[in-house]
Amino acid sequence: MPDLIDSSENVSVHGIFNWILLLFIFSVITAVGNFLGYHHPIEGSLIGMAILSFITLIGVWLERYVPLDISSILYISVIGIIVAFPGMPTSEFVLKYVSQIELLAIVTVFLAYVGIGMGKSWDEFKALGWRAIVITVLVIAATYYGAAIVAHIVLVLTGVPAV
């Protein structure tokens, strides 16, 4: 089965169609999860996901066609900042709809997609052995505890009482 995302250097019409299809499926699932889990209106969630998907498509296109060696993540982030920056004509519209999308609704769908991708390469993962599992657990735990420590320090410095 061919990959849904074409990783070739040039973006073909077929590759763009695959990106649009993937982002559409991702957006619908996220909007439904956002509605069921957080009770945000599904229409607003779909509009917000359409905005994020459009920004993503532009970022991917820029990565492939701008002759600089810059990741699409950087392009997507900069475009998102620009369109949401206070004073920009798009700011109010973008913030109204994108703020209706909960981060956990997006992350849940993304992690499910990553899980499916891992399932496709399970033999490669097993070849890494038990050490990879231990390292993965340690990295996740260290990230969690590190974030908790930083959050605690920030809360204490801002005057929020420690529990």
Provide the fold topology.
Layout: H1 13-38, H2 42-65, H3 72-84, H4 91-98, H5 103-120, H6 122-128, H7 130-157
Helix pairs in contact: 1-2, 1-5, 2-3, 2-4
Which labels suit this protein?
163 residues; mainly alpha; 7 helices; 0% strand
Structural description of this entry:
- Helix content is 76%, strand content 0%.
- By secondary structure, the chain is mainly α.
- Helix 2 (42-65) crosses helix 3.
Short description:
With 163 residues, this protein is mainly alpha-helical.
How many individual domains?
2
Alpha-beta content class: mainly alpha
Distance between the termini: 52 Å
**Helix and strand pattern:** HHHHHHH
**What percentage of residues falls in helices of 4 or more residues?**
over 70%
Tell me the β content. Answer: under 5%
**Average pLDDT:** 87
Q: What is the count of β-strands? A: 0
Give the overall form. Answer: globular
Radius of gyration: 19 Å
Q: What count of helical segments does DSSP give? A: 7
Largest sheet: none
**Uncertain regions spanning at least 5 consecutive residues:** none
